[in-house]
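Researcher: Please translate sequence to structure tokens.
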Amino acid sequence: TILGNLGDLSFYKTPSSSETMPSSTNASPPTEELSYGDVAVAAVHISGGVQETPLIHSAHLSEATGMQLYLKMEHFHPTGSFKERGALYTLLCLDSEQRRKGVVAASAGNHALAMAFHGKRLGIPVTVVMPRFAPVNKVSRCRGYKAKVHLEGENIIEAKVFAENLAKETGQLYVNGYNDGTILAGAGSVGIEILKQLPDVDAVLVPVGGGGLIAGVGVAIKRLRPQCQVIGVESEACPSYSAALEAGKPVEIVPKETLADGLRVPLVGDRALRVGQRVVDKMVVVPEKWIAVAILRLMETHKTTVEGAGACGVAACLAGLLPELKGKKVVLPLCGGNIDSSVIPKVITKGMVCDGRLLMVEVEVSDRPGGLAAFCKAVAECGASIWQIAQEPAVAETDVYHLSVRCSLEVESADRGAQLIKSLQDRGYNVTVTLPAAKL
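Model: Translation complete:
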């Protein structure tokens, strides 16, 4: 039986290139409150169409945090997120009539991409409704998968209302990307894979938006390894799941702008919350600056690019929010990698500033010939690099023989930044730091 212990997980495998895409399943719909059996059945049915993603140990992040950190590379899926699991299972469970009519999904991007991708593979019409703030790359890729795209609403809740009304008009099935039973069951296969790859895991840190991923993963983890902690991570810009847990029911909040746009869900799913109340041990809320640092760290140490939502678990560890996990084996699902290309340079800059490795300063330099060159030489001798420099047209406040210069200086670390400023001051420069990490 697939409902046994870890030794029974051999059924879950990576599909080989010779295997054919599954076309349908006669699986029963998941139970209202989602059981481990629902998750295990979903894992069986999607195993021929969704790859098993790698789990890698991060030596660098482990050393930086004092934990044994493992990265679950869910952004390696063709559409760049874990959402393919629930999307494929949902489409496989459709009856012939519903397959003909197609489905409607509301999503900021990843759920829409997954539905469009697998809908195209299975020949099922897919319509997606995306908020107007949805990243451009996700919108264009959905259209590339032949989905019909509508841009409606200022957030996912407004897009969801439009999608539900559209489904009623067209007779298509509306698929909630974080609350439908088949979605939760498919997402739970991440938990089964984790325990297959690291049976003695101590904790799993799951990014939380609408609550579907943590519900599914939590059901699998608590059934197969009850002592393993299931911890949710949200951005401080949209802590809707924490608010729901406190209220005992979904409550709508007003989200702020966040790097973790995939988690910007103002109202969590009611089913996802009910399941989560059974299996989630703890929630943490991570500041935005640590999400930027986490994205940067993953770029630098693992040469991998993830979106803000995918980096939240790493951010929580780097921010020191979970000191009780020191020395423990902790898995961090990198749940998505679809960051907008135009955002990457901004994230790198913000991450470096927050990390104390990029300083914005104002300095007075001599207006005589060679004055600016002398300053640049002093910066180089201190081991720093100049990113940008701009000379103000007006003279400095002190006298007419000095000019004010604004510049961005890259240093090795926050400590080296402090040393740089002191060294420049010792050389007679009047330096004002306008944007150090301490101000963020």
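Researcher: Any highlights?
Model: The chain is about 40% helix and 20% strand.
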